[in-house]
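Example 3.2
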Amino acid sequence: MRTISEIANRNATFIHIPKTAGQAIINWFKQSPNVDLTYRDCSQGHPKRQWYDENWKQEKLENVFVVVRNPWSRLVSGYLYTKYGSEKKYDRSWFVRKTFEEFVRNPSRHYLPQDLWYKETDTILKHENLKEDFKLIQNFFNDHRELETYNVTNVNKENFDWRTFYDEPLKEFVKEKYAKEIEFFGYEYDA
């Protein structure tokens, strides 16, 4: 399983947090003439930072970057992607019966709080400002191609509002469970 992208010619590492434009970034790297992209295999998809520290003890990761996302928005995106938009060839029947509330209250390891990934990173980009934030990466690699979107769930974007998935108790549950990243990045539900 490809989970971490190492950019050997620039001594950089991208750690992919689920539903934060990771596939778009990996595809951008694959198409860049200025990037020598390699992957590290691991036994767990989207490994947390602790996994790298435990399994790569001899190597110092340099220029580590991640993309983070508003946790309320990320959970809706993950739910819709898993339920309707995943390209994975696995049986989703176990999931289809889950309500959004069940998904949020009992998330898979992919949707745990993001601080498990972004510890000790050099650069943190925000999904909400990705077009602007990604210019740091484009400049670092001297490649100014636009970042394309991938793995977007087919929903009517014009009228889509992820806030409609939440009632007050579920909104507060997410606020408590993801409190570290909400506070650290200044995320707000109504922003």
